Amino acid sequence: MINLTIDGKQVQVKENTTILEAARQNGIDIPTLCFLKGINMAGDCRMCIVEIEGRKGFATSCIQVAEEGMVVRTNSPEILEARKTILDLILSNHHIDCLTCVRGGNCELQQLAKKLNIREIEYEGEKLEHEIDDKSPAIVRDFNKCVLCRRCVATCKKVQNVGAIDCTSRGFTSTISTTYDCSLNDVDCTFCGQCIQSCPTGALREKEYINEVWDKINDGDSYVVVQTAPAVRVALGEEFGMKIGTNVKGKMVTALKQLGFDKVFDTNTGADFTIMEEANEFIERLTNGGVLPMITSCSPGWVRFAEKNYPELLDHLSTCKSPHQMFGAIVKSYFAKKYDIDPKKIVMVSVMPCIAKKYEASREEMEVDGLRDVDYVLTTRELARMIRQANIDFENLEDSNFDDPMGEATGAGAIFGTTGGVMEAALRTAADTLEGKDLKDIEYKEIRGEKGIKEATLNIAGKEVKIAVASSLANARKIMDKIKDGKCDYHFIEIMACPGGCVMGGGQPIKDSKTRATVDVRKLRANSLYSIDEKSVIRKSHENPALKQIYKEFFGKAGSHVAHKYLHTSYSKKEKYEI
Amino acid sequence: MEKVKTIEEIEEIRTKKRAELDLRVNLKANTVEKHILVCRGTGCTSSKSPKIIENFRKIIEEKGIKNVRVIQTGCFGLCAKGPIVIIRPEDVFYAHVKPEDCEEIINTHIVEGKLVERLLCKDIDGTLVKRLDELNFYKKQQRIALKNCGIIDPEVIDEYIAFDGYKALEKVLTSMTKEQVIEEISNSGLRGRGGAGFPTGKKWSFTAMANADQKYVVCNADEGDPGAFMDRSILEGDPHSVLEAMTIAGYAIGASQGYIYVRAEYPIAVQRLRVAIKQAREYGLLGDNILGTGFKFDIDIRLGAGAFVCGEETALLESIEGRRGQPRLKPPYPANSGLFGKPTLINNVETYANVTRIIINGANWYSSIGTETSKGTKVFALGGNVNNVGLVEVPMGTTLREIVFDIGGGIPNGRKFKAAQTGGPSGGCIPEEHLDTPIDYESLSKIGSMMGSGGLIVMDETKCMVDIARFYLDFTVSESCGKCTPCRIGTKRMLEILERMCEGKAKPGDIEKLEKLANSIKKSAVCGLGQTAPNPVLSTLKYFRNEYEEHVMNGKCPAGYCKALCNLKIQPDKCKGCGLCKRNCPVNAISGEVKQPHVIDTSKCIKCGTCVDKCPFKAIVRG
User: Fold this and answer.
1) Which of residues 159-188 of A touch B (CB under 8 A)?
2) Which ipTM was obtained for this model?
3) Contact present, A418 and A500 (Cβ < 8 Å)
4) How many domains does chain B have?
5) One domain for residues B333 and B420
6) Among candidate residues A349, A307, A303, the one with its CA nearest the CA of residue A324
């Protein structure tokens, strides 16, 4: 243990604790801006400077490790003044349009300005003007709001091992940019949106489709159907001040109905369809000598990553569409027919924890008979904005249920929202099918949890099945390189682009750096999903009664010709850079 | 070239070659041979010295002259007089030589044995100088780092060997332990010549103590201060001295690989280094089993792309590793975690250039030169408003006055001295009252400047100190890497305030704002570049605050330099109406009849100052 003094307080911390951590553990907060625990610890912004007795200049508390006997001051008049000057400088090159900024109220820069009591900008001067990049269907880059903290760069490089963005130019004109300053749309960006999660300001944000959705709801002619992904319900409440991971399914459904959607469906049912098709595809590949390992395909950021980086391995990807795309196709075919609605009038809106789903919905493959599977994708955050726009008192809403006939999903569908969940759901169905019985032992705990790559060897129907689960694209790359080198003996792999899976998707409520450093957000949200699963009466996709009915009436069986038409897709090589 | 396998073999080369080259350093050398030495440093090269060499060789061949060799050398130092040709053993020194002068030099000097008087150099006092060391410029100099510059052909390893080259390495490898080498360097008192003056021996010892399977020796040749060119001259004139020192360092710290990080803008230095490395490898002075001792060390070159910040040691390491050149936070220091995360010793070129002399002559000899805290000599690149622009090496403790007036020959055009800027963009401006400060690391920082890499720019009374501060800030702003907030935005805001001042648009309170921001950046920036960027402002504020006040309060530039703040005026009582100004004005802003006082139309005048320089009666003033 290390003993040191911070602001006159004697404290004891473990070895290798930074001064910032030591202070926070002892109730002293030091402001930060560029710091993102474990990801960006470069000491660039200089907000977290402190004084260490006997040392010249200021120390960087996010990096400087506490040493025995250190005497640290975090709030001397000189430090406070220096911090204020630093923030003043940042603000002097910032387009202060907080009132119309998407991050207004949830902006770390704004919080700092408040905390440091900035009343005017002392060092006014030239402000750089950047063009906004909104070419992609998913992410908008607005560098007029960038503070050069480089949290996005570190996230893209270290967490995702993609490296689509980095710092270019020098000095005052330094900019975060892409290869040849191209649009994110035209480079190796996968639209995972983790950069948005890392951004302290509004410099990176999702492309908003709120107005388009309002127009459709209000035009009196469209039949607007909404579906919500499993991870949305365990995060939406956070936008309204509720505890992290609170399951607000009932309130969410009520709110969606109040917003004016004609039908409110659960993507979890779509997930059940995905399992039916994917489990079937896996069994086919396993028993008929197909391409193995088979890799899940429900994470569109991952799919784009594979298409750009491993085009020669695309045969390994399951041909299944992702749950919301399947669900959209089912609504516009089976549902429209059954309820005699003109499918051309159906507008399918997906509320997703994901940024890449916006891109996925725009892929040319995602349509059947001229009908787009999904018309608009909103993030969890956009839904919250719509709820606020409509003056809905979210916290005090009554619960209601998803609409029939696709209302009740299974517990298997729910856990799709966390890393390991797709695999677990698929195994429940695949094992039952292969064993030919209703297995009781259905919790695959070895593939739950936070580890980036999880592996297990299972015995199913006397056959040894090797599986792996990876989340984050950096881990995906490790697995893919193994396959490429022929050193991979897995049969089935689940890959999700975002670290921790959809609960930590790019479209989820944004947590500030301090929350991320001190709270395990992933665990709280994931546990909430596992608890939904536990409480579910039906926990295996193939036992979903609505699903069984639809197979009976429409698809026949999993993997059928009709199922392929509506529920499967294909992949193709994508150029890394389109310059 | 055959490998030199033993100490005896290299000693044999040395003895033979030394006798051959005696005439280079011995006025009374007993020989019929003559060596025509032509400077092939960057400055003289750009003034056609390669053509001079070519012409000499052609003429000698055509005339069938025997016993005369034409040798290319590094810089002699007195760049203001270049291209320079020196003929030895008599040591006659010809200045401003043109390719077409070669014939006359051969005919008159070599054939007839007479001096070519018109090419001899005049000292500041007007006396005709025959020999280089007769010049005041050289009298107070002591050459250690530049010892071989201007004496040997840098592209011939044997010439280096002749003048004690690789003797220090021999000594180290055969008779000294690693600890003894480090102790010798420590005892010499040598401090880093790159800027901050960290004790070199300490650096060596920290790196030696670090445990690792691999260590590196790095030479920082990313010389970037405006006006500084001593490292370039050493690499151009004596590259082996750096290679040898790095090899010694490798032995002392336990490294087998060295890197020289040199800017690509120094093509001649890079080429000389390449030749030197190749020759040293061929001789086995780099590579495995050096001089049969079993010691292994090699050196590679890494080219920098011209970022000033890459002279900062950690940014330099980032750049070698192939990343964006921006500083790392310290600690960890390179001695523990440097290149590729391995313990790394980084010294600059001039520091290494002292090492071999210390090993050969001993720490006591070295530490007898200089001041209490700063030992040895320092090379300065003397520039600006001074007569003898060039490279000077003086013992630490020499005063600024001696450098500017005795060595530099004072200020041209009869103007007055105003300030000397040392330390480049990290340094400060020193006013006349501190001219008698003996220069060392401490005294310079005490008066608000710093040693830096040794740029020394002299400014006369016509220079505006606010504009000088603006100039240096402009440099820093374009060279900031953009990593930390204070440097990225803070220096830009300082520059904007300074620009306002120079344009007459300053607001009350701007001086205080500038000062506050400068002090804040000094303490909060990440690396040396940012931390020292405010120095030019702070030092000029300290010594020339009234000039700032005049700019801000009264909208005036006392030096008459800032165009927006002054007008040119012809004093009618002094004007004789000669019309010279009128004829030379590029925008026809001057009118007047012959023998009548002339007048400047300020609405047309662009304040270029041509008329001021042309007026023989000093009738035109700025104000």
Assistant:
1) 166-167, 169-174
2) 0.92
3) yes
4) 5
5) no
6) A349
